[in-house]
Every structure is written in C-alpha cells, then in structure tokens.
Amino acid sequence: MGCREDLLKIYGLLNEYFGDLHWWPADSPFEVMVGAILTQNTAWTNVEKAISGLRESNLLSPAALLKTDEKILAEILRPSGYYHIKAKRLKSLVRFYFDEYSGNIDTMCNEDSTVLREKLLKVEGVGPETADSIILYACRKPVFISDSYTQRILLRHRIIPEDADGATIRTLFMTHLPHDASLFNQFHALLVQTGKSFCRKTPKCDFCPLRFLMMPDAAK
DNA sequence: CACCAGGCAAGTA
DNA sequence: TACTTGCATGGT
C-alpha cells in the first residue's frame, strides 16, 4: 500500500493540474497561527471576513490579542462561526505563545518541531491538524498535515484501509516522502483543493486529475 | 430547502 | 477505548 511512487504519482498529477497554490494565504507567520484556529471546520471565505475584522481593529498582533477581552474578540470573530469557542482558543494560543516563546516567532520556530508539536497539542483548541498547520505554514518546517480530505481521497483510491486514522496517514506520508517543507506545503494544499473541487461527499470525478488513477492491488 | 466548510473537546457507554 | 454531540456563520 501507499508506497513512495503512489504518493508521488498523485502529487505529480495534482500539481500539473492545479499548479502552485501558494499556501498559506497570510501576511505573516502570526497571521497563519490565527488563521489556523479560525479555519477549524470552517470555509476559508468566512475566515477572511474575521481576519479582515481583526486587521481593521488593529488586533492582528500577539500583544493586541493578548490584552483584548474575550467577549470583545468573540464579536469580531463572529463571521468565522463558532465564535465563542474560537475567541477562547485564540486567547489560549496567544497566551501560550507569550508564556513559552515570549511572543517571538523565531524563538518558537527554532524549537525542535517534534517538541513544538507536543507543546502545541497541549494548548486548548489546538489539535493535530492545527498544530501541524502552524509548524508547516508558519515555521516552514517539514511536517505533513493530514486532514479529512486527505483521508477521503486516499480511501476513494484504495491507497489506505478503511480504518486508517489521521496519525497513520501522517506517518505514511512522512515515512515515504522526503522531509521537504515545500513538498508538504504544496501537497496538502493540492489535496484540499482536490477535495473541494472533485472529492466532496457526492463526488464529481468527470474531470478529476486523479480519475485514471487505479490501484486495485492496494486495497485490503 | 439541505448540505457542508482547511476540527476539537467534552460527554456517554 | 470508541462513538456521539455541541459549536455557528455563510455559501451553494
């Protein structure tokens, strides 16, 4: 199952079709961290509205967010949905950022990525995908981000078994591919784009770049 | 109208 | 451990 050639084949097909997707859309690493919380189970278009609100209120900095009241913050986050929880989670992440790294992006990113990941996972509201998004897209360190699209796409093509979870899939990619931040960056972006365009719950496979990809022997 | 989006934590058995 | 549920706005 899922050996190196399979994954690179998928990457090649998707990359040729979509081209460079230039993820993560943000003006700074800290903005990536904010976006990583706000985009949890939420369409990016809604996240953009909330980030614009933060920018207009001059709250797109660690220090400003640290001292902003959670209830005030929640109202600004409203368009991104789950706004009470996200205000709480964002405050938690910013507090952690100051407590652990003095609110300095270089200090945080100089931390060993495995250690950083373990610490991020202890922060209220930061799970595996959010942690990996921060490490890859804010720190530009080579970790693979596994998400529901990744799972669905690999499952449809029978590259992974039914019961493979996110951690398993993450390990699969990181075991078989070179630890290249640019590769993992573009690969995750491609999988999300493919999911949105072709691999929804009701698939539109007619023009999917993976439509001729068959791996019958990979099943089981 | 129903469905779903770049998840996560808390509750239940 | 393995499911289930709450969280919520906005686009298709």
Describe it for me?
With 220 residues, this protein is an all-alpha fold. The chain folds into 2 domains: 3-22 and 145-213, Helix-hairpin-Helix base-excision DNA repair enzymes (C-terminal) (Endonuclease Iii, domain 2, Orthogonal Bundle); 29-138, Hypothetical protein, domain 2 (Endonuclease III, domain 1, Orthogonal Bundle), CATH 1.10.340. Helices cover 61% and strands 0% of the residues. It has helices spanning 4-18, 29-38, 44-56, 62-67, 70-77, 83-101, 105-110, 113-122, 128-138, 148-156, 166-176, 181-197. The longest helix is centred in the middle third of the chain and has 19 residues, at 83-101. It is globular and about 55 Å long. The protein binds a DNA duplex (13 and 12 nucleotides) through helix 2, helix 3, helix 6, helix 9 and helix 12.
Largest sheet: none
Average of pLDDT: 95
User: How are helices and strands ordered from N to C?
Assistant: HHHHHHHHHHHH
Supply the number of helical segments.
12
List low-pLDDT spans. 216-220
Q: Tell me the β content.
A: under 5%
Structural class: mainly alpha
- The N- and C-terminal alpha carbons lie at a distance of 9 Å
Q: Residue share in helices? A: 55-70%
Rg calc = 18 Å
* Dominant shape: globular
CATH fold title of the largest domain: Endonuclease III, domain 1
Name of the level-1 CATH class of the largest domain: Mainly Alpha
Task: Tell me the name of the CATH homologous superfamily of the largest domain.
Answer: Hypothetical protein, domain 2
List how many beta strands DSSP finds.
Answer: 0
